[in-house]
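Reopening this ticket.

The earlier resolution said the output was attached, but the attachment link was broken on my side. Pasting everything inline this time so it's all in one place.
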Amino acid sequence: MLPCEHPIAALLPHAHPMILLDKVTGWGAQAIETTLVVRADAPFFQPGKGIAAHIAIEWMAQSCGAFVGLEALTLARPVRVGFLLGTRNFAADQAWFKEGETVHIRAELAFRDGETGVFDCTVRCRDAVAARAQLTLHQPADLAAVLASQGIKPGTTDNR
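Inline output:
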């Protein structure tokens, strides 16, 4: 794994507070490792409980997004929007991630065909696998055309 010189915000087309990861801890040609610390001010945090395990799917998806973001920056290309198309075999071994816990996410590219990729993902916490899934993601070359095909005007929130 190589170190990452970029802040996570430079790798994802998200804006705070929806960037849920803290940083990339390593990456290579086929995989990325990211991390975050569960904080009370994080989106989806519930006092007295923490962050529910199903949010790990978004952590995995953002890790995949950071992977393709790093690929883009390495090739001097812009970071682009991608979509989570599907989640297979999601399993969580704990219901909640508690405040103060450090969470490690690994996403490994299993398959790629053009604009679509499949990643095998694991989430570790307290030195054990806490969640796992296989994600299918799509990053269209022409986002405006995809949005227009759905009747969405790019750059707007009013799509009536």
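Reporter confirms the inline version is readable. Strands lie at 23-27, 31-37, 45-46, 50-52, 83-92, 96-97, 102-113, 116-125, 128-138. The radius of gyration is 16 Å.
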